[in-house]
Structure formats: C-alpha cells, structure tokens
Amino acid sequence: MVRFENVGMRYGSGPEVLHDVELDLEPGGFFFLTGPSGAGKSTLLKLMYLAERPTRGRITLFDRDVATLSRAQLPALRRRIGVVFQEFRLIEHLSALDNVALPLRIAGQGEGRVQDHVVDLLNWVGLADHIHARPRELSGGQQQRLAIARAVISQPSLLIADEPTGNVDDAIALRLLYLFEELNRRGTTVVIATHNQALIDRFGHPVLHIEGGRLERRPGRREIPGSRELV
Amino acid sequence: MARSRDLPLDRDGSARFLPWLVALMVYLAALTIAGGAALHDAVQTWDAGLAGTLTVELPRGTNGAGVPQDRIDATLKLLGQIPGVAQATRLDGPAETRLLAPWLGQDVDVQALPLPVLIDVQLKPGVSLDADTLAQRLRIVAPGTTVESHGSWLDRLFRIARLVQFGAAAIVLLIGLVAVITVIFTTRTGLAIHAPVVELVHLIGASDAYVARQFQWHAFRLGLGGGGIGLVMTLVSFAALKWTAQQGLLPGETALLPALHLPLAGWIAVLALPLVMGLVGLATARHTVLRTLGRMP
Prior knowledge:
Strand content of chain A: 15-25%
Distance between the termini of chain A: 26 Å
CATH class of the largest domain in chain A: Alpha Beta
Strand content of chain B: 5-15%
Strand order of the largest sheet of chain B: 2-3-1-4
Number of helices of chain B: 8
CATH architecture of the largest domain in chain A: 3-Layer(aba) Sandwich
Order of helices and strands of chain B: HEHEHEHEHHHH
Number of helices of chain A: 7
Strand order of the largest sheet of chain A: 6-7-8-3-9-10
Shape of chain A: globular
Structural class of chain A: alpha/beta
Number of strands of chain A: 10
Structural class of chain B: alpha+beta
Oligomer: heterodimer
Largest sheet of chain A: 6 strands, mixed
Radius of gyration of chain A: 18 Å
Distance between the termini of chain B: 25 Å
Shape of chain B: elongated
Order of helices and strands of chain A: EEEHEEHEHHHEHEHEE
C-alpha cells in the first residue's frame, strides 16, 4: 500500500527533516503516527498524500513508484487518498454539503448520487442540521467533522488524518475513531497523526513514532499476544 | 463538467473591473469595424456609381466669357457619334447646384459663377473609352476640352480606403491582443489569490483541466457580459449618430461623406463581438491556467 525506502526530505536548501525513512504499511492496516512537534510528522503525511515529493529515496504508493508519475497521473492516485488536514482546509464560500461533495464532483459522480451520499454522511457525522451552513458558521468540532466527512466520502483506499481529534471533546474523538475503524474494517488503510496517548492506548493499533526526522515502528497492543482488548 | 463555484472567482476584484474593460474594448472594436465596413461599402457604391461614366469639361474663355452654344452643341453631337457612348447630357443649373451644394451650400446661384460647362457621358455596358484619346477628338470642335474618367482619383480613393481599412483591422487586432493580455493577467492574479483552494482541489484529486475549466468559464462569462455591455453602448451610439444625421445636426463638411451604412457582414461582425470576446477569454484563461499549473512539480 505505502512503502518508503531510504526516504529523505528537505525543503529548499534547508536541513533534512526526514532521514532514511523506511516504512511499509500493509493494506487494511490502522496506524497511529506520533512524535513531538517539529519531528517531521506533517512532512511524512505530505509525502503520503502526494503534496510533496522526496528529495531522495523511493516512495511506492498503490504499487506505483511516485517518482515516475507524471503530473497528469497524480489526480487519479490522489482520488484514492482521503486527507483530514490539521487546519481542516474547508472552502469558506461553499456550504457544508458542497464541501463534502467536492471529492465526488471532482471524480465526476452524478449529482443525484452526490446528494444522496453527502446527506447520508452529514447525517452520520451529526451535521444533518447544518447542511447549508458555511464553515465559518460552524464550531471547531463541527468543522473537524465536516473535514472528516469530506475525506471519507469517496471511500478512499488510504485515509490520512492529521490530528483529527484535536478540536473535539473526548466523546466525539472516540466516535470519530470508531468511524475510522469502521472504514478500516471496510478495507481502508488508516494513518492518524495524534498526540492523544489515551486514544492510542485505548485502540491499540501499531504506532509509527517519528523523532528527529527518524521513524520507528512500534507494535500496537493488539499485535502483542496476550494483551487485553480495551475497545 | 466542473461546477464553476469551487473557486470564488466571482468575488475577485478582477470580476468587477474586467467586464467594463471588455465593454470598452468591444465598443472601440465595434466602432472601428463599423467604420471600416461602412467605408468599404461606400467605396463599392462610388465605384458602382462612377463605373461607365466620363465627365467632359469645356473651359470658359480666357477673359471669363461663357462657352459658346455652338461649341457645346458640336461637342454633344460628336459624342453622340462615338461608338460606345450611350448618352451625353449637359449638366444643367439644378444639377450643378446639387453637385456643388456640399461645398458652396444650397443658396448659391451657380449660374453666376465662372464655371466650365460639364457634360455627363454614360457609356454602354462593358465599354471603356480612353479619356486622353477622347479629349483629343473633342478638342477639334471645342479647344481646351478635358475628359475626366474618374479612374485615377478612384484609384487613389481605393488606396486610401484600403489603407484606412488596414488600419482598422490593425486596431481591432490590437484590441484583441489587449484583451488577451488582460485575461492572462487576470487569470494569473486569480490563480495567485486562490492558490490555497487550487492546491486543495488538486490534493483532493482535481486535474489541471478541472481547475482550468473553472477559470475558463468564468472568463467566458465576463467576456460575454462585458461584450454585451459594449454592444449596447455601440448600438446606442449608432442610434444617436443616425438621429443626429436625420436632424441635420451634423457639421456641413460631413455631407461630403457617404451616409453611414453598415453592410450585413459588418452587422454580423459587430453583433458577434461579445461572443468572440467570451471565446477569446475562455481560450486564453484555459491556456494560461494549464500552462501555469503545468510548470508546477
């Protein structure tokens, strides 16, 4: 699904922010990404959702070598990736419905199908009463749920979420994680960057820990034989 | 097809000023096209009107004495005997008055002026006579007679008209070039303003063509709308010009010019300008976006 081989990354002529990253995410996996601020989490995620290209090394995504992809080939690959941005990146002049519908419309889905899917999903994330609201009319938590709905509407093969629970209370955070797990059960590979250790402990998925630009994979509680199921 | 509202292009400053800029460009282009087309039409009319005609001029005596009647009669008789001449008619007082009215006004008694005698010669269809040869024959019965075939001054007129039409075409092309540059500038500005949203839709899976479609239809609407305003301004100007001419409010010198008559091709060109401007905007915006985004990694 996602493979990083000896990947290094620097911005311009600045220092290298990722060093020799080796990573292999199997399809259908669920991973937490942790690490202190400035450790390179966002850069790693940007490489995964094709916002950046590595300065060295090789990234393989859906069995395609990213370095060999032309600009014209990128959109099709990006449509298989759902992203929840840390700062949400909702389009301010669009309604909640249109924000969530954007990936489907970009993919050329029929408008009837778009409307049905979007309304169902907005209902599911608890925004049924805010379908026509603009993002600025929503609270931080509601905006976050809207961003998540937009990321998952097209049922991506890979879901990447950067601090998706940062602006919501514990109950909603828990509910969002259940949503991600539900998607994961349907085959979506999930990578979630978070500082919420309680959630990491609770769900017990493997952890990708990054520090000083170097990545370390730690087994989740679920991968350790004999550990107790908390969820 | 892409929904044009993913990018808030309608809220750009460019969306406010561009239609008016396009309107002015269309207005100027329409006036230029109308002028060129009307001139072309007028030249064709002059050509058709003067083809197959000659003007014979019998000069007055050196002391200002009038032209003797027997000399005029002999000239008319000789002209009637020349093969190819259909009709030869002396221009009478009212005809001369009409001819000179643009220069001298309607109230001047042309009979009191020391004018030469003019004979209008109509040739049979398809016949052409050499003016110099004819003049030599006529001088036998009326010394000093000259023949004007209109060909030489018509040729000069055609050259001037062609020059003016070329200039008009060049102006229209320049206006088109300015329109293209304006759209390029506006589109690049729009891309810069909306860079975060453009990047976002790319990350969601939009192709460059998807983004380009948003800009191209926006530019098309602005071009068409601005062009429509310009067309209305043009039609109002035409109507005002026509009304002014009908009321006799134009300066006397303009009576020398042919009446402004826009041929069908001219009307089509003028009426098509908003659509052309819209299509120019569409193509330019699309090309600009694809080229700009194509340079990105």
